C-alpha cells in the first residue's frame, strides 16, 4: 500500500511540474520562437516550403555521400601516421606516450559508462 501512495504522490508532483512547464511554454514559447528565427535568419532558405526542405535534405545526404572518398583517404593517412609512430616508437617522448595513454583510458571510460547506462545504471548487471 505504501508503494502505491508513494507512486501516487510522485504522479501528482509530475502533473504539477508538467502543468507549470506548459504554462511557461504558453507564456514564453512564441517570443522564444520569434527570437530564435530572428537570430538565425541567415540560415533560412526562401521560400520556406516542404519542397525546399526536401531539396535541402537530399543535398545534405548526397553531399555527405560524396565526401566519403575524402574521409576514407584521411582515415588511411591517419592510420599510416600511427603505423609510422609505432615503427619509430623508440623516438617517442614521454609526453606523447602519456597523452596516448590518457586518450586510451578516456575512450575505455566512455565505453564503460555507456555500458552502465545501457544496463539501466546497474554496475554489475544483476538485480540486487
TrEMBL record:
<dbReference type="GO" id="GO:0045259">
    <property type="term" value="C:proton-transporting ATP synthase complex"/>
</dbReference>
<keyword id="KW-0472">Membrane</keyword>
<dbReference type="GO" id="GO:0006754">
    <property type="term" value="P:ATP biosynthetic process"/>
</dbReference>
<keyword id="KW-0813">Transport</keyword>
<keyword id="KW-0066">ATP synthesis</keyword>
<dbReference type="GO" id="GO:0031966">
    <property type="term" value="C:mitochondrial membrane"/>
</dbReference>
<keyword id="KW-0496">Mitochondrion</keyword>
<dbReference type="GO" id="GO:1902600">
    <property type="term" value="P:proton transmembrane transport"/>
</dbReference>
<keyword id="KW-0375">Hydrogen ion transport</keyword>
<keyword id="KW-0406">Ion transport</keyword>
<comment type="similarity">
    <text>Belongs to the ATPase g subunit family.</text>
</comment>
<protein>
    <recommendedName>
        <fullName>Mitochondrial ATP synthase subunit G protein</fullName>
    </recommendedName>
</protein>
<dbReference type="InterPro" id="IPR006808">
    <property type="entry name" value="ATP_synth_F0_gsu_mt"/>
</dbReference>
<keyword id="KW-0138">CF(0)</keyword>
<dbReference type="Pfam" id="PF04718">
    <property type="entry name" value="ATP-synt_G"/>
</dbReference>
Amino acid at each position: 500500500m505504501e508503494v502505491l501512495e508513494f507512486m501516487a504522490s510522485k504522479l501528482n508532483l509530475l502533473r504539477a511540474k508538467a502543468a507549470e512547464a506548459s504554462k511557461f511554454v504558453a507564456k514564453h514559447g512564441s517570443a522564444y520562437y520569434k527570437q530564435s528565427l530572428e537570430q538565425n535568419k541567415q540560415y533560412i532558405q526562401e521560400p520556406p516550403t516542404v519542397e525546399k526542405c526536401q531539396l535541402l535534405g537530399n543535398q545534405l545526404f548526397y553531399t555527405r555521400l560524396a565526401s566519403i572518398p575524402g574521409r576514407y583517404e584521411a582515415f588511411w593517412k591517419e592510420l599510416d601516421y600511427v603505423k609510422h609512430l609505432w615503427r619509430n616508437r623508440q623516438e617517442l617522448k614521454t609526453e606523447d606516450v602519456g597523452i596516448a595513454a590518457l586518450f586510451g583510458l578516456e575512450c575505455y571510460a566512455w565505453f564503460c559508462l555507456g555500458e552502465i547506462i545501457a544496463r539501466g545504471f546497474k554496475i554489475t548487471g544483476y538485480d540486487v
